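Appendix B. Chain record.
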Amino acid sequence: MHPQVIFFEKIRQNLPDNYILADEVSALLGISPDSAYRRVRGEKKLNIDELITLSRHFNVSIDSALNNQSGNIMFRYSPLDMSNMDNYYLYMQQLAVLMEGIAKAEEKEIYFMAVDIPLPQFTAYLELTLFKIYTWFQSISKQPVSYDKFCAMLDLDLLKGIYTRITNAYRQIPSTEIWTHNTIDPIIHLLDYFPDLDCFENKDSFSLICSQLLELVENLERDAGREHKGNGPFFRMYLSPIAIMNDFMITKRDGVNVTTIKLYTINGMFTSDALFCSEVEKWMQNSISKSILLSGNATRERFQFFRKLKDRINYLSESKR
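Structure tokens predicted for this chain:
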């Protein structure tokens, strides 16, 4: 089947039964019904502007049609050049817009397969999030700088506003998170390593970051116990008995799924390819079926899991004083 025909078929699947596809295309593109029918049947090629207009309006990805028969998958990736922090501000603003869009959708849900603590859990804690970004900056920078000087380089008011938007949007989205005993390891290892490099000019900064990480874990434990994000949507948490090798996020928004594969510390690449998203979701559901539920009535399992996390944070905080 021609990719253009596949593209229109995906649009048709998203339309209510009483809508006529050609009529919708005709009105949207400002062309005659006959011209619309010719495009739908693949007899007349769409130009790039028409393709983009249809993709955005009907929320159907172009790549899902283009790669349907080739076995290839198209991913979108936004390079993140940290030598200019404006790139980071823009990247995070785009993430905030994405999360807010999902939060406003009628049908919505997020799944995390968490090798590392999901970013929306971090963003409620400014200094903790800044430390995470600082360690990423240090890994690519040829000019070592202290945590305090790095923070002084940033527009903290702007970042705080962006982080708050991400946090607030995430708190409105039903979510399922799959953790392991090692999900906390990345941040623990960073907090263990960087103080030995005298990266903190203000010695209180380390204690503050540790206290925020502890607060994150305690709030996560409360949400898991309630099975809700405060008084908001449902929240389910599972403990996988085996190590997770890839950090995945699936977002569901009014029938359109997007899978994000995390890269490095904060960046990622994502696709809305239907087959790939379906395969990742099946893998997640299979992992869930083999995992231990930490939410709701799983009081004993939840207590044991979170006690170990809190003990590790407290031990680290004491050992570095």
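Further analysis of this model is presented in Appendix C.
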